[in-house]
Amino acid sequence: MIISADFSSPNFEDRRNKKKPYILLLHYTGMKSADLAMTRLCEPASKVSSHYVIGEGGKIFQLVDESKRAFHAGISYWRGEEDINSVSIGIEIVNPGHEFGYREFPQSQMDAVADLCADIIKRHKIKPEFVLGHSDVAVKRKIDPGELFDWPFLAGKGIGLYPSAQHGAQNRMVADVQKMLAAFGYKIEITGKNDEQTQDVVTAFQRHYAPKQLGSGLNPITVGALVDICGQCKINSSPFGGGANA
Question: Fewest CB within a 10 Å sphere: which of 69, 140, 149, 170?
Answer without folding.
Answer: 140
